[in-house]
Amino acid sequence: MSIQIHVKVNGVNYNHDVEPRLLLVHYLRDVLRLTGTHVGCDTSSCGACTIHINGKATKSCTMLAVQAEGCDITTIEGLANNGELHPLQEGFKESHGLQCGFCTPGMIMTSADLLQHNDQPTEEEIRVALEGNFCRCTGYHNIVKSVQYAADKIHAAQKNKKEAVV
Ligand code: FES
Ligand code: FES
Q1: Ligand 1 in reach of 41 Cβ (< 6 A)
Q2: pLDDT tens for residues 14-66?
Q3: Does 109 lie in the same domain as 73?
Q4: Range of the domain at 43
Q5: d(CA 115, CA 48)
């Protein structure tokens, strides 16, 4: 038996018939071929599969595809804007926040959710936000610096925008 789902992913509408047991992460990777969302564990603990559902960071291995019916989803592939890297993508590049890069999409999607609500997080707040994301390479210091880089860039852009309006 399969069930039809309708989802919007990175601004594109999709309709597919899926098995009720199909995990959302496998729908994204195997059906839509959006392989930037990774699978790093089978215990919902590594965060490599993090995406945004209706704007909120969510581990896509913890949901069935059918549970995403009607949702607006963003994956790492949808984060750049008109070919311009998101400040977090730039931050991970400039501040050496990645080595093998396996955890990076999940780290970025979790951090993007944080920065939507708090564009000047403390180091402690960044570390708390990333508690559910594991990195096996970097020791986390440069990941935190990468998020701080993005926060500073976003904060400066918002300040400039406000000054331009005044
Ligand atoms: S694959 Fe989802 S938390 Fe590890
Ligand atoms: S950069 Fe390799 S797991 Fe994080």
Answers
A1: yes
A2: 999 999 999 999 999 999 999 999 999 989 999 999 999 999 999 999 999 99
A3: no
A4: 3-78
A5: 18
Return the closest-CA partner of residue 76 out of 109, 38, 116. Answer: 109
Structure tokens at 151: 């926060």
pLDDT tens column, 67-107:
999 999 999 999 999 999 999 999 999 999 999 999 999 99
Q: Which ligand is nearest to the CA of 134?
A: 2
| CATH number of the domain residue 10 falls in | 3.10.20.30
Ligand 2 contact, 48 CB (< 6 A): no
Residue where a domain stops, chosen among 22, 47, 78: 78
Same domain for 102 and 36, yes or no, is: no
Distance from residue 37's CA to the centre of ligand 1 (Å): 10
Which residues have C-beta within 8 Å of that of residue 90, sequence separation ≥ 6?
Answer: 149, 150, 153
Q: Is the shortest distance between the CB of 126 and ligand 1 below 6 Å?
A: no
CA of 150 from ligand 2 middle (Å) equals: 19
Which of 59, 78, 97 terminates a domain? The answer is: 78
